[in-house]
């Protein structure tokens, strides 16, 4: 964690200068949150959700993959609901997912990890960290190639949390992510008070 903090301390000033040099916008997501909700959402809720979605399945256990598939189906259902506006189909789909997710979790609980994950573990590991980092581009109002540098801290967190997930388990990666977000939020607040 000390290394993570030192990297953040070194990277944040560089990213601030990069942001100014390319006239990149600040994260828009923070301005949309009420100040009293910022810390609980960023430090407690986001790490649990993001670790579960991006790294919960990295071991290749069928039950974790089932939950990931259910989450992706939920995202697809949300997209369908906004495009098609068919309330009955959306409601039935949601009901099916509410039943299927825990049922699959229970039925698949004793199954060993898939062999594919032993062979392709590095691909899954790096892909999950990269997708995690790139998903944070949604925090910015517009995309440009120089904006990719702004998600370097999230890429580092994704790599570190993935390693911790595989070595110590999901609760440990969630704790690391919470600590990382708390440090980043604290540093951002401290820098905003100074500058």
- Give the class from helix and strand content and strand pairing: mainly alpha
Proportion of strand residues:
under 5%
Distance between the termini: 26 Å
| Gross geometry | globular
Uncertain ranges: none
Tally of alpha and pi helices: 8
What is the mean predicted local confidence, pLDDT? 88
Number of strands: 0
Structural commentary:
The structure is a single chain. The chain is mainly alpha-helical. It is built from 8 helices and no strands. α2 packs antiparallel against α8 (170-194), α3 (62-84) runs antiparallel to α4 (87-107) and α7 packs antiparallel against α8 (170-194). The protein is globular, with a radius of gyration of 19 Å.
What descriptors fit this protein?
single chain, 8 helices, 75% helix
Topology of this protein?
Blueprint lengths: L1 H20 L13 H21 L6 H23 L2 H21 L7 H5 L1 H15 L16 H17 L1 H25 L1
Helix pairs in contact: 1-7, 1-8, 2-8, 3-4, 6-7, 7-8
Concise summary:
With 195 residues, this protein is mainly alpha-helical. It is built from eight helices and no strands.
């Amino acid at each position: 964690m000390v290394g993570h903090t030192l990297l953040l301390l070194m990277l944040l000033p560089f990213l601030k200068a990069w942001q100014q040099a390319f006239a990149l916008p600040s994260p828009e997501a923070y301005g949309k949150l009420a100040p009293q909700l910022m810390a609980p959402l960023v430090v407690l809720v986001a790490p649990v959700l993001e670790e579960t979605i991006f790294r919960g399945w990295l071991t290749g256990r069928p039950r974790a993959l089932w939950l990931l598939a259910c989450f992706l189906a939920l995202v697809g259902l949300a997209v369908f609901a906004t495009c098609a506006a068919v309330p009955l189909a959306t409601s039935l789909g949601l009901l099916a997912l509410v039943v299927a997710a825990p049922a699959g979790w229970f039925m698949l609980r004793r199954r060993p990890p898939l062999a594919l994950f032993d062979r392709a573990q590095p691909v899954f590991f790096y892909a999950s960290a990269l997708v995690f980092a790139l998903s944070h581009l949604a925090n910015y109002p517009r995309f440009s190639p120089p904006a990719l540098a702004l998600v370097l801290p999230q890429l580092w967190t994704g790599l570190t949390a993935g390693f911790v997930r595989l070595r110590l388990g999901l609760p440990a990666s969630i704790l690391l992510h919470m600590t990382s977000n708390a440090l980043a939020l604290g540093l951002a607040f401290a820098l905003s008070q100074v500058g």
